[in-house]
Design a protein that fits this description.
Number of domains: 1
Number of strands: 0
Length: 122
């Protein structure tokens, strides 16, 4: 698992003060074990906010460069993974499949897994 949680040097965060999503965390980040139908509905609402946000593109770039989870800049986890910017720890099979396809096609980054501390090295 990737444990480097530093912000990309290429990321610019000045855009955040102009974002219209402040206070809407539950719209952009779903709960654990969210039902697929509910996720589609929630992401449709999130997209409606992103489409009128003046900083949608810098937000998307930040999420891609930092491999964020959630809905950022009009993109969900699967869409970022398909573009080669999967979240550090993808949690849904659809995100993992998109990440693997992007990597296979030469667009993605795959993070090295850390060894399991409970398994003896051979």
């Amino acid at each position: 698992m990737d444990t480097d949680f530093s912000i990309s040097e290429e990321a610019d965060t000045d855009w955040a003060k102009h974002a219209i999503c402040g206070g809407l965390t539950e719209v952009f980040f779903g709960p654990a074990a969210e039902r697929p139908e509910r996720r589609v509905e929630r992401e449709r609402l999130a997209m409606s906010h992103c489409m009128v946000c003046p900083v949608m593109l810098p937000c998307r770039r930040n999420a891609r460069l930092n491999h964020e989870h959630g809905f950022w800049g009009g993109e969900n986890d699967e869409e970022r993974a398909a573009a080669g910017y999967a979240p550090r720890s993808p949690s849904r099979r659809s995100v993992i499949a998109a990440r693997d396809l992007a990597f296979k096609e030469g667009r993605g980054v795959v993070y090295a897994e850390e060894p399991d501390p409970w398994v003896e090295a051979s």
